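hey so i finally got around to running both of the ones u sent me last week. sorry it took forever, my laptop kept dying halfway thru and i had to restart like 3 times lol. anyway pasting them below in the order u listed, first the sequence line then the structure token line for each. didnt double check formatting much so if smth looks off just lmk and ill redo it

first one:
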Amino acid sequence: MAAAGSHVNIFKNLEDNLKLVLEQIKGGETGRENKENFNFEKYWGHMGSVFELLSLEGSKFSLAFSSSPFPPIKDCEVMTANLEKLVLELVRVFYSLPKSQGLTLRKSLQRAVVEVVESMLGLVSSLAQLDPGRAGERQQATGIVWEGANSFVTLPKSNKEAVQTSVEQSAGLVEDALTEIDEILNNEGRLEDIFGEEEEGGGENSEAWTAQDKELVDPTKGLLKVAVKLTEKAGQACKVKATCDSEAHVAQLDDLSDCAQRLSPAVDNLTASLYAPIDHTAVRNSATTLSEIIGNMLNILRHSHMTDEGDSKWLDFLDKANTHNLTTLTDILNK
């Protein structure tokens, strides 16, 4: 029992250390300077090796403590020390990625690093419960470690790839909102029908749209369709023309990603405002916010290296469609 207690103490200490590491990573950026001689291939090669080694260490821990007798205390101390070194190396390598490589790329890598450390923390937490009956839990935790470590293969390795992924994710979320509006339309704005349940006092007496409310659907859908088309075009422009060969180009990509990330919450707010009873002020404010974000995104693209004169036609079309739909919606609300 004393030996088991010592094992638990070792894992508890490791658990505490991993929590501190997570706090550091989630805490934000550091003041590290940019590296003019940054070696792209060397950096990602080393980072990939660290991810792989962490996956192997997770397997070692899971196998070593899958059943009693457990490894001697000294062996356990060596194993935990090696794991701590690997985790610290992961953090060091993460922070050595220069900010000049792109903030979107750093955020993408940060999420991956956090995911791996959290999965390792989950495994260590399960190991701290040296209960043979929880072997299944440890196996599941090990699987999560493998999954997190193996995600490195699909991680964006440049700001261009990271921004393209960000824009594509935004496109999917906006398309989902467009589908939701069709569902709202089919139920005349009734929230309970969407979820297959009737709220207290629902049924025939539940709130539904007024005639004026129904008129808001078309221009609202119009704004969302502009947002969908915009994210599609932005993704194509990023894929075909974007480069990371200068800090100015990297910064333009980051601006595009930031704007694209703001689209989804704005779309959600506008969609939610259409449920009966409709608050016209909320609809007006949400539509105006979404229209402004669309306008900003068009402006970023228009003045970036990702578009040229050949893109003016679709940029102008989406700009006019954005203005038209907002004006139509505002006119309806002003009746």
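and the second one:
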Amino acid sequence: MVDRLVNSEANTRRIASVESCFGSSGVPLAVPGRVLVGEGVLTKMCRKRPKSRQFFLFNDILVYGNIVIGKKKYNKQHIMPLEEVSLDSIVDNQQYRNGWYIRTTTKSFVVYAATSTEKQEWMAHINKCVEDLLRKSGKKPVENHAAVWVPDTDASICMHCKRTQFTFIQRRHHCRSCGAVVCAGCSSKKFLLPQQSTKSLRVCDACYERLKHVPSGAGEELAGATAGGVKHNASGHGPAGDSSNDEDTDEETTSPGGESHDEPRFYGDSSVLSADDSQSTIAAATPTSSSSTTTVSPSQNPAVASSMTGSHC
């Protein structure tokens, strides 16, 4: 079904609408062959607290951003190539439910869906897009990913020395290799992690000792293995946070807190295929004469994006 949407007018308008909602804070998303597979709101575990983020799943990238005005305006656009994405489910506990890890080589974090059904839908669609993309490209799945950071609020003391208590003066720092929250004294060194940055990054003393004793070029593999070792908070039962220093800002949706939850939409599903989609896919699959109107390609930007059914803007 996704392949049938490639040249549909509905897909072209949807992508143009997403671009419009990000405005100047985003980059153009319309490229030949790209399909908007699904969209919806997920709760992302950031460094300081959970925050609602709008996610857009394309057949080759995963995009998310801050919600400024629900369905109308987003900013702080982040783009994650699906070729690098790996998902891992998180077991529910009393405080957090319906969560999973989203990992890439440069950024990893935890997200939560509103229901178990939505979690299953998101994970299934993302995994299907990743599998299709890797199969078509002939590439192998990425094995080493950035560490998922332990949230600041889940570590009142240094996770390395177990002595330093964090205050306004004693700041928290995150090891870029394992994601642990450590004090300045336990993370005074830096190490080059090529998949994450061209510059040397702060690592804890334990990771530095491991990394410096491995052969050149193998350090990133060890870092990836170390990253898998810190999946929970300091107490051992909570979620992890965001692997970057990007707080995604504190801008939130201006929609009332009591607004009903909107379920995610996945356009590749026949169950959510609108009449507009059906007509577009039929038109794309039906041969036309040379005098017929040519189907709009995803790389074209229609002038009127707001006419789309269920438009973001």
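quick thing i noticed on the 2nd:
The first strand starts at residue 36 and ends at 45.
anyway thats it, ttyl
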